[in-house]
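Example 3.2
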Amino acid sequence: MQAVPASRKQILADDPFLIAGKPYRSRLLVGTGKYRDFEETTRVIEASGAEIVTVAVRRVNLASPGEAMLQDFLDPKRYTYLPNTAGCHTAEEAVRTLRLAREAGGWKLAKLEVIGDGKTLYPDVVQTLKAAEILVKEGFDVMAYTTDDPLIARKLEDFGCCAIMPLGAPIGSGLGIRNPLNIRLIVEQAKVPVLVDAGVGTASDAAIAMELGCDGVLLNTAIAEAREPVRMARAMKLAVEAGREAFLAGRMAKKSYGDPSSPISGVLPHE
């Protein structure tokens, strides 16, 4: 058996996942929307093993006393809250929303999402770039949701975003990774974490994203709209782990013809 190079051994033994300089064990990030209630949300997050949870600032009560709050169910000391700008359609809206989130909860890490089309929910990259530049200058650690365009991904990184999150397919579509080539190109050029965000429908989609070399996966609808959300959350956890292991292991080369698993030299001839 061929020895694994020392550098490779180190990667396998110590494969850190850092977001804005903070280490995390889980490479699966999970949203907190679309569940029946906060109790189901809690069960899903626990089953997923996620340590970072996204929160739509404009849709979830984070600071109003007297009303049920997400913090009552998901301890902010245990989980990293990732406020996002879901529902924003301009850079100005996104910047204002995250400024309010920082005032309410002191959150510096944020997911930037600026939607340009109400039907496809595709991101408006012009507005996203504009907002990213402002937010980074104001001290936010910006995880930017964007298209699977390698050039836009590079610009967002150049602006100082701490993570790039290209879509796998439109938000909530469950179509899986529609353009693996572009995702791979983004991964190859990036010096910051790349996470597939949007489009994952089932566990195999999450595994494919990780096998392409992505650092993580962010999802919500695939779990929330599953027949058994808690079970799907466990499946996604395992898929992300398996996909990462497969990427680090390095897949075999694809071949045009068969290649026997057992050696054929020295085999006794047929009589």
